[in-house]
């Protein structure tokens, strides 16, 4: 990317120059992300795509632009569309509609300066770009994450008999572990059962029984604690890293039942493959505690970074409390508008610079240490965890 | 109010002047407040009235002036009594005793610059001023909130037969909905049952049964989940906004059972009238999440603003994380000393100026957007929600 | 201590000079602390001793020096070993190995400027120094805390018959209450049962039954809610202050079951002796609430101060929200390396200066009030609570 394309994420704030230079340009691993929209969306669809919690249309009395995320979007994305920073919502929207999805990706993906996307392909896969397309659009390679519940559903929908389900699931995971493009797995137990379940490893007999019950239902949506625990333990046995959706998400989940502390029974007893606690807001302090307490536990504060906008500085700061710096990763959890792929990166760089810059300024950290912390969280930890 | 009466809430701090000017003078809607004391209180009574959590006298080894709220009171209220800022507790108290309740109201209410009080009249109604008296004292009109549990108790105490209770309750709510002075309702389920109850809509048969059981007890204190859920659903059916006490309150409540996430089963299934999550500390991040996830959910961080004193800046900042700006409201939750009606306003204005001023200073927000955010939270959202 | 030994905890930050002078030199009561290591430790042992949560060796891919605590240790402790601030981990370790445990204590204990250590002797008592030795090393007197579960275990291990257990326990507590060196007790219910137990006072019959069941087991590890509640109520009846481990600790505990709000049933009904909620992170806001709500409840944010390192400033700030200033205490909860005894003190002084200095700077507090708050939390409250 030409030097002119480096966004000055420290415009109007003071950050020690060496740290600022590094943060402006370091190429990140975005360890949990989705594709960009393949097709144009209308304004209602766009506004819904920048509201994580709701599953309804945005009501008439408001616009989602009037939110911390919307404000940051107007601040950082409008200039990339040739508009003034803080262009109003209508102006932003009008300009955006003049560009195709591919052009929008061209505008927003490269300045995110992401060296590798680790893509979760498990959700609404046909609305958004494949990893291959994301690589074409961004110029950066992708690795893939296999969603465990999706795998189970695919097997059952393909007609796998309940009796054959455990072996078929294991075979698929073994194949995934041998596939260099797949670097880990993910569970959305948060959405399906909450974390307050029996996490002990089920027997095949139990698994067959639950698979049979599921196959008899109109939908194969996996919401059986037995099938979910089965998936996690099988992935662990194959040394596959396991991403876990934690906390912040849409209102289908019972947020209080996604407190990561409820995972303690699992974390204490599982085969200790890398566990990646994703998002975690507002339980990020609990997640940091777990990352300190268990060698195999790591976490991020993705998704929250985008949704908190300017306040992501506080979130990023709170995420550097008890966890060793080797146990935190960067992610955007962007899904849909490529603005989100960019914003995650811009807001994280900026927040790290403001927080670590403050540490340096007050004599609490050296510049070299700050840069090392940035590299661990932004790049190296993901490489180690996923073997990239 | 003469210009001279505008309190300089930004004394000694730097806030962009246009925003500062607006925040000093904008007339707020205090959407959840109580009256002021009608009679003089002694010092013990005063100190108890500035401690929210305890229900005991303040012990001899301390004074409640030595708290964040006490410190802010000495900072902001002492000068209005003609004392130096930070006058000591004894000096403050001595001066305060020289004024009648009416004179104290004259001192503290007008500079709060509140355009309308939305008054909860359900608690200790005879110790404190009526809405009519609050209007006389402050010059600002009042609207009223009907407490649902109080209504049920009033009906039963007036001898309503259990069999007639459902209809009588509905009739009273219908009358309230037609009364322009009553703009909403409130539930104190937090104090009576906690939020981990069955929120489904009960049948009249169930309601009658619970009303009968209650009528047979020496006290008519409503603590039946069935009667509470009944009240909420009936209010919703009549399109009445519903305030919900959440979090911070006195020690009679089980604070952990007032986590607003426990309201999810209600929020997902109720008729979607405006729900106002009140106070919310220390669950304000959870409340903000709900306000993003549900179109009909709104929240405030009143009460906490006063009790955190100087630290209210952090609370106000944390309240601007995930919720759209259209979903937060201002309140003081003042009760008793008119200092609290003033302090809520002063501390909120100051905190908003410090936080938003920081956003502007670092280029994260325009001045115009900051002013718009102030107006939404401080004025417009309340007008929309209650139809004022 | 010669003036030259005063650490400038405000190096490179601006704090009002009078407050800074006071904070640099005030002699603290460290109301919850353990001894220092009696013997040299190897590097693995040292790294484990600066990780609170884990019970495993530090894995090969990281060093615990790369954590907030490690960073603060390199910042504040390296210079006391004659190294540059931020000396790297290997350099630090090499220099440290040149000193005996006694020499390390000589380096780190006196500049902590602690006037009195209140020592919990209940854990790993033979690896670390006795109170007597801590006094020799530091020059400061010690008081002692009796661990209730340890007392029960000692009695049973000494062969006390189950039938005699209640009386023997009471007699031991009565003796402790008469012993001027013992100023309080402690419960580790957090580790043994969690707080969601029946806290009502058990009958002697129940206690005997549980003691008998325990005596019949291979280990006398007290994990019976009945025996734990018995210990707490007996201590309270003898007017002994009761420290309660809350929150942050190693992964043996179910952190979510150590939310101090779960203590409400106990706090509401017990004989109101001083209760000291220890550590509390990440539930410190809940702890502050309880300290406001109950005259007999106090709290600290020890342990967390060390483990959050530079971020302890935020923790100390959040601990000054709702609680009266008379209800918070200072502690380090240091255990093992004397660096921790020093760091707790340095980080607390620094955090208090930064936070209170900000209050003063913005006109929210007078210098005199800030100094008074420091003295209450750092010295006076502990003296009052324990009768020192």
Automatic annotation (TrEMBL), chains A, B, C:
Name the domain of life: Bacteria
State the signal peptide span.
Answer: none
One GO MF term: hydrolase activity
Which residue intervals define the domain Amidohydrolase-related in the entry? 158-388
InterPro entries hit by this protein? Amidohydro-rel, Metal_Hydrolase
Protein name (database record): Amidohydrolase-related domain-containing protein
